[in-house]
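Hi team,

As requested, here is the filled-out complex form for the zinc ion run. I kept the field names the same as last time so the parser does not choke. Let me know if anything looks off before we queue the next batch.

— J.
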Amino acid sequence: MSSLLVTSCKKDEEENENPPSTTVDFGTPPSAGIVTTGTVEVITEDNVRYHVIVAVNVCTVTIVETETDVVMIDLGPAFIQNFGTQIKAYADDIGKPISVIITHAHGDHFGNIDKFESSVVYAETSVVSELAANTTFAGLYTGEVTAVESSLTIGGLVFSFDKVSNAETNENAYIYLAAEKALFAEDLIYNQAHNYIREYTPLTAPDELTNWLNGLNELKTQFGGYSHVFVGHNGTRSDISTVIDENIAYLSDAQGLIKGTKQLTAGGFASTNQQVVDELASLYPDYVISALNLSLPDAFYPGDPGADWFAPVEFGDPPPASTITTGTVEVITEDNVRYHVINAVNACTVTIVESATDVVMIDLGPAFIANFGTQIKAYADAIGKPISVIITHAHGDHFGNIDKFASLDVYAETSVVAELAANTTFTGLYTGEVTAVESSLTLGGLVFSFDKVSNAETNENAYIYLAAEKALFA
Ligand SMILES: [Zn+2]
Ligand SMILES: [Zn+2]
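And here is what came back:
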């Protein structure tokens, strides 16, 4: 290889031995006041200007402005009134031709596509298929989405495309400007916001969170030294390795809680979506929470089962109802809990709450029905799990058989404990300690919440509820 090197000896040119960097004059950005439904941050560099628009719910649209073009990375959700028309007005105000890139087939990323009918819309090849199969997208946009296999050059910038499959959704594309050291990770990286893990199905392969974590480790290797990462929720960060580590920690915690390798702070393991959601909320108290609640039952529509994280508990056959000759038994089986409702001949009711691992008796009925106490004890024993007792209030028809449960853990709401201690019938039957519960008690993975009404049916009437199961013990 030969080359001709022409040098100049002029001293004043030595300072310019690198090609002169052309600094684009971007002028004044549009007024941030155009977007009243969010905030705008403008980051100006030599060849590119970024306009990061964070909607009121932290959904983020990033506008990449080159010398000649505007590229929208995602378009935010439709449900924030005026957001779509405002981001369109903002982009129009820049005064350059607008292209759109959609990173993945979630409505909060393409919800305003109907405002951009006149733009060319791009997506990574596999995301094009996902969008084509999405009826919400098809209802909003009848134009064609142009598939990008690996890169796209717009306005002199090379947008490189890649993806992680089976992670936050079926296909999450990410895009990068290698020359500008800018990564558009969108929903593969969240910024101080709970990751959307609704689509995680740990009971069937592949394991989406393992895929997501592997993808994050690859992103960290490839882009850890970049200058900017733009995300789908909550803006942008310049400390890319740190924000990736935050996401790895979060998703590892979530995966451990769901798969039963990480204990709850209160002890035991989660068996319901509500327990996982509550634990993540308390582990990451400062994170924006909206995506987390979308994993709960009823999140998207009434009767929505929520994320498919836990297999229904196998309860097996209940004890024979004939164990109770002094009353009737009704058994109600749900995914995570089974209720055995025992109605004594005088209509006093004892409810047995059975979880995957435990039996909790809510009240114990009266002493005066011969054999009722020994029969409910025999029935509870036949379930074959450790038994705890909750007494709701200091009336004898609710604690009359406490002597049959003398060796077990007995709980009551704090003020009810005081009532029971002052009740000579109770103290005559039971010399053990009653454990006071202030607000909640977790037994067998179920969270029993306690509250009370004072000076009503008696001095202190506790009521208990399982929020995750929508069950009230009044
Ligand atoms: Zn998403
Ligand atoms: Zn999103």
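Two things worth flagging: The first strand starts at residue 38 and ends at 44. Residues 104, 106, 168-169, 187, 196, 232 surround zinc ion (ligand 1) (CB under 6 Å).

Thanks,
J.
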